[in-house]
Amino acid sequence: MGITLLALGLISGGAGVALMTEHLVRAGVLVSVPGATALVCGAIRRERHTHTDELADAHRAGYVLALQHVRRGLLDQRPDPTPDRAPLDDRAGSVRRLFLTRDDDDKRQAG
Q1: Alpha helices, H only, 73-111
Q2: Rounded Cα–Cα distance for residues 45 and 38 (Å)
Q3: Residue 35 in contact with residue 6, Cβ under 8 Å?
Q4: Max Cα distance, the chain (Å)
Q5: Are 42 and 2 in contact (CB under 8 A)?
Q6: In percent, how much of the chain has pLDDT > 90?
Q7: Hey, how many other C-beta atoms are within 10 angstroms of the C-beta on 31?
Q8: CB count, 10 Å around CB of 10?
Q9: Residue 32's closest CA among 62, 56, 3, 55?
């Protein structure tokens, strides 16, 4: 409907310009504006509908992927293979720092 109104308005406006009748030009403009508005609203509605469909497809694909992960056991927490290891806090002493840490920053001076 929007394309029909727009085409009718452009044709009548063009005829009004060609025939130099002000009333026909005004009628063409008055018919073209709602036609263009209907085209824009229709495009926005189609885009939103497409976006909703794509979102639903992505949600469905994520759900299927999650079910596959559950089936493979990727989401289950497995027990520690070596239960006799020390807790993480006790093992922190074996961490090697990548950057030098200085505790005496306040004693340093530019010189």
Answers
A1: 88-91
A2: 10
A3: yes
A4: 97
A5: yes
A6: 32
A7: 20
A8: 16
A9: 3
